[in-house]
Amino acid sequence: MKISNEDKLLAELLRLVPVPLDQPLGPGDDCAATRGPRKGELFLLKTDCVAEGVHFLRSDDPARVGWKALCRPLSDIAAMGGIPQQALVTFFSPPDLDMGYWKKFYRGLGKAARRFGVTIAGGEMSRQPSGIAISITLTGFVPEKQLVQRSGGRPGDKLFTTGLLGGSLAGHHLDFIPRLAEGRWLAEKIHPSAMMDISDGLGADLPRLARASGCGFEVNRAAIPCRRGSRTDQALSDGEDYELLFAVSPKKAVSLVNRWAEVFPKTRLSCIGNLTTPQEPPPDWPGGWDHFKKAVV
C-alpha cells in the first residue's frame, strides 16, 4: 500500500512497537518524556533528521545546514518548555562528498550548540550511495509541573503564535532561531494549556494541536502574521517556520499580552483565534507540509 499521509503512517507503525504504559509522555507530541534522575523533573528525548532534496540543497552553505540540523530538534524542546542538554549526531555521506563539506557543516552545528548550551556527546557516520542525510538525537529536561503538551487545550482557549509565518524557503529555514527562551518563559510564567512548534505549517499543525486536545478551532485569517512577501495561504501551508503555536485560557491571555512586549520586544506575538468544541476544520482549510504529498525543496 502506498504511503499517503505521515500522520496515518505513524499511527500504523506505533501499533507494532511497545510503549511503556507508565511513561509520562510517549510518541505523538513534540518530544517524548521519561522520568528523570531527579525527583520532579522529566527527561526529554527528541530525534530529528534533515535530508538533501527535502530539507536542504547541495548548493546550500553547509554551515547553515549544520545550524538547521541542530535547531530543528531544539525547536521541539522549546515547544515542551524544556532546556536542551546533549546531542548525538549521525550522518550519511555519499562518496562524491569531500571532507571540507563536513568541516563546514560541523562549524554551523558547533555554532548552534554553543549558543544554546548543547553538548555534542557522540554519534555515528556511514557511507551511502547517494544523497546527504543527518539525524540528530537530542536530550533535555523540564520540571514535571511545567511540561506543556499538545493535548491540554480547552474550548474557549485563545490561540497564539510567535514570530512570522510563510515564505521560509527564501532563507529563514536555514537561519531560524529556535524559540527556547520564549518556550521556557511561557512554561514557567504562563503555562499554556497546549503548545507545539510550527514545522509543517499552521495548516497542518493547528489541526494536530486541536485534535490532540479533543477540540476544534476557529481562526481569523487576517490576524495570521505573514512574513514579508508572503500571502496568508503561504503562511498556512509553506512549513519550515519553527515558531510556537500555543493555547491559553482567556484569563491568562490578558496577562500574556500585557507582559509579552516587555519580556520579548523583538518577538512578535499574535492572537489568531481560539479553540472550540470538537468540529471539523473549515472546508477551505489548507493542509501544510506532508512528506508523502509535497514536492521537495
Please write out the topology.
Elements: H1 6-14, E1 32-35, E2 41-51, H2 62-79, E3 83-93, H3 99-116, E4 119-127, E5 133-143, E6 158-162, H4 172-175, H5 180-190, E7 194-198, H6 202-212, E8 216-219, H7 232-237, E9 243-248, H8 250-263, E10 269-276
Parallel strand pairs: 3-4
Antiparallel strand pairs: 1-2, 2-5, 3-5, 6-9, 6-10, 7-9, 8-10
Describe this structure in words.
This protein has 297 residues and is of the alpha+beta class. The protein has helices at 6-14, 62-79, 99-116, 172-175, 180-190, 202-212, 232-237, 250-263, and strands at residues 32-35, 41-51, 83-93, 119-127, 133-143, 158-162, 194-198, 216-219, 243-248, 269-276. The protein folds into two domains: 25-146, PurM-like, N-terminal domain (60s Ribosomal Protein L30, Chain: A); 158-276, PurM-like C-terminal domain (Phosphoribosyl-aminoimidazole Synthetase, Chain A, domain 2, Alpha-Beta Complex), CATH 3.90.650. Strands 1-2-5-3-4 form a five-stranded mixed beta sheet. α2 (62-79) packs parallel to α5 (180-190). The two termini are 25 Å apart. The mean pLDDT is 91.
